[in-house]
């Protein structure tokens, strides 16, 4: 555990909580892509099956349980409790274009050809692109609520901090996991355009809106 | 191929 890893995890947690609170306080999930939220629930579920097979630490177990719990709570909000506010008309990204290639790739490029390991690999690849329906939705509507941009910022920051964590671990522990690193790079790059808008607009007090 | 996949990260 190093400072980048810990702040990365906390940033991830902050993102998830911000989203849940935003929906709860405003009683609305407007502007949120339910499809991205489904993908994140799939990511956590397929990655954390090792909760049943191995124990790493109390920290590790509790964070996994919290992430999974929050992911399903978010889904419950979007598709049940606040379903009337869900903007499905703008949430039109075709997730099969992500699921099929990612599923295929996880069978082809993995550390070990075993069910749990393939599911872990699948979750790493899927996470790297799971935000695309949300970004697509924002590009379609041309705007995002400020609180939604805070959510996206912390979600993007988390993987960027993990990149520093991996550099750290490579130098000080000789550890590296090529699958996680490459997927983490892809994931972070997908946020770059958003980071730019966040810094140049949202942090200066303006609403995030895209030119028509 | 890695010796033993060890996923201690989240």
From TrEMBL, chain A:
Keywords for the protein's UniProt record, in alphabetical order: Cytoplasmic vesicle, Endoplasmic reticulum, ER-Golgi transport, Membrane, Protein transport, Receptor, Transmembrane, Transmembrane helix, Transport
Which compartments does it reside in? Cytoplasmic vesicle, COPI-coated vesicle membrane; Endoplasmic reticulum membrane; Golgi apparatus membrane
Q: Which is a Pfam family this sequence falls into?
A: ER_lumen_recept
- Asked whether the UniProt record includes Endoplasmic reticulum among its keywords, one would answer yes
- Alphabetical list of PROSITE patterns matching this protein: ER_LUMEN_RECEPTOR_1 (PS00951), ER_LUMEN_RECEPTOR_2 (PS00952)
Q: Where are the transmembrane segments?
A: 65-82, 119-139, 151-172, 178-199
Q: Name one GO biological process term.
A: protein retention in ER lumen
Q: Name one GO molecular function term.
A: ER retention sequence binding
A single cellular component GO annotation: COPI-coated vesicle membrane
* InterPro entries for the chain: ER_ret_rcpt
Q: What is its main location?
A: membrane
| Topology with respect to the bilayer | Multi-pass membrane protein
| PANTHER family for the chain | ER LUMEN PROTEIN RETAINING RECEPTOR
What does the sequence similarity comment in the record state about its family? Answer: Belongs to the ERD2 family.
Query: What is the protein name for this chain?
Result: ER lumen protein-retaining receptor
Q: Which organism is it from?
A: Clupea harengus
